[in-house]
Design brief:
The protein contains 9 helices and 7 strands. It is globular, with a radius of gyration of 29 Å. It has a 5-stranded mixed beta sheet. A two-stranded antiparallel sheet has the order 1-5. Helix 6 runs antiparallel to helix 7. It is of the alpha+beta class and 262 residues long. Strand 3, helix 3 and strand 4 form a beta-alpha-beta unit.
Amino acid sequence: MTTDENTSTNSKQGTSPLTVFIIAILIGGAFLIGKLYSEVTLLRQGTAVTAKTDTTATGTAQGNTNQAAAQPQAPQETFPTVDMASIDPVTDKDHIRGDLGAKVVLVEYSDNECPYCKTFHTTMQQIKDEYKDDVAWVYRQFPLEQLHPDAPKEAEATECVADLAGNDAFWKYLDKVIETSNDQADLVKLATSQGLSGAKIEQCLTNGDQADAVDADLTSGQKAGIQGTPGTLLIANGTAKLIPGAYPYNEVKKLIDEALAQ
C-alpha cells in the first residue's frame, strides 16, 4: 500500500478514540474554569454585613449576609423611619424603666439568649443611667426559639416574676437572667435568690401561665417590622426610628441627643 493509500484509509476510519477523549477533557476543563471564574466574580460583588442582630429564619434584618447584587440597589437608611400606626402604644402595662411621659421612649424587642441582646442590654443600662428621666426604656419579649430554644421559657420566667412581684422585681430579675444561659431549674433558683417564691415561679413556668403574654409581644414586634434582635424603636416627637441591632453607645446617644434637641 502506498503512502497516499494509507492516508486515505485513516481518513475513512475517522478520529481515534484517544483523540476524542483528549478533546472531551479539554472542553470539560474549559467549562469548569469558566464556571469557577463566574462564581469568584459574584463573590467579589457580594457585600458581607457585620452581624449585630440575631434574625429569624426568614428575616432580612442586619446580621444576615447579603446575596450577590445582580442589579444596582438603592442604599438603605441606617435607622429607618417606622410608621407609628404599626407600633402598639406604650402603656403602664409595659415593663418600663423610667417615666412613661419621657420625651424619648426606647422600646426594645429582645431575646434573653441573643448574644447581641446581652451586649445591648449593657448599652441600654448606660443610656438610662446618663439620661435618667429624659429617656424611658420599655422592654418587650421577642424570643427566637429557632435560634435559642431556652429563650421562650426565660421570657416567660421574667413575665412570671412581673406578675408575682411587679415592675421593679421584673427589671432586677431580667438583669440577672440576661447575664447567662438558664434552664428552668436555674430560673427558679434565681427567683428564690431574689426573695421570690421559687414554687410559684416553677408552677407558672410548668403551666405556661405567661406564654400568651410572650406571644403577644412577639406579634407586636412583627407588626412593627421587627425582624431580628435586638430591635429597638426610638419614639420621640411623634415619630419613630428603628435601631436594627446592637449599635454601640455613641451611636444610640447621638440619636437620642438629636431627638431631645428638637
